[in-house]
Write a structure and sequence with these properties.
Strand order of the largest sheet of chain A: 2-1-5-3-4
Structural class of chain B: alpha+beta
Shape of chain A: globular
Oligomer: heterodimer
Radius of gyration of chain B: 16 Å
Strand order of the largest sheet of chain B: 1-4-6-2
Helix content of chain A: 25-40%
Order of helices and strands of chain A: EHEHHEEE
Largest interface: A-B, 16 and 25 residues
Structural class of chain A: alpha+beta
Distance between the termini of chain B: 23 Å
Distance between the termini of chain A: 35 Å
Chain lengths: ~80, ~150
Amino acid sequence: MVRVLLFGRLRDVAGWRERAVDPPPATLFALKNQLTAEDPALGEALAAAGVQAAVDRALVRGDTPLAAGAEVAFLSPMSGG
Amino acid sequence: MVRLQTEAFDPGALLSGFCQGREETGAVVSFTGIARGGAGAVTRLELEAYPGFTDAEIERIAEAARVRFSLQDLLIVHRIGKIAPGEAIVFVATAAAHRRAAFEAADQLMDYLKSRAPFWKKEHGPDGARWIEPTDQDRSDAARWD
């Protein structure tokens, strides 16, 4: 199982903020592909410019293996202040 | 120190507290960001953080500024949750031996908080809600320090 969290507008597109994906996909890209197959609108939003991913609360670039129990967050462009 | 909080804060009280007991400091600079009402277009802001990630990222940004500008101290207070127009969203204070470092550090911290700190900001108004994402200006402001 991996835990998937969505932030910002991704959450409005998907209609959920958190879910478990089981069995766990082997890599981040495999997880993205699975989410995209289930919900093409979310897939398009995940592919948009400026969307980043964090695995176990660390930003990652490109693909990375996912351990069972990993927490994967997809982050819309950030804006504070 | 970095603090995320849902409660409103008084920027004047934060600044007074930050200035206490600083015989060797020389310069304190502070910035307060206030939610804009947009002439009635915005009734409230909603700011979301990613607990355990947002705080760690801001600590990292703060530590880098502390080293780069030889700061003696800094304070960042950022609201999360619901914020009404006119309320303070963010407070940054920097303490250094001389003013230039304190000004520049506060400037950089705010530029990074605008577009690189993990917050998500939604504006609610009479015409509905919309996500606020960083502008090209916000990105180029932050890039000045890279």
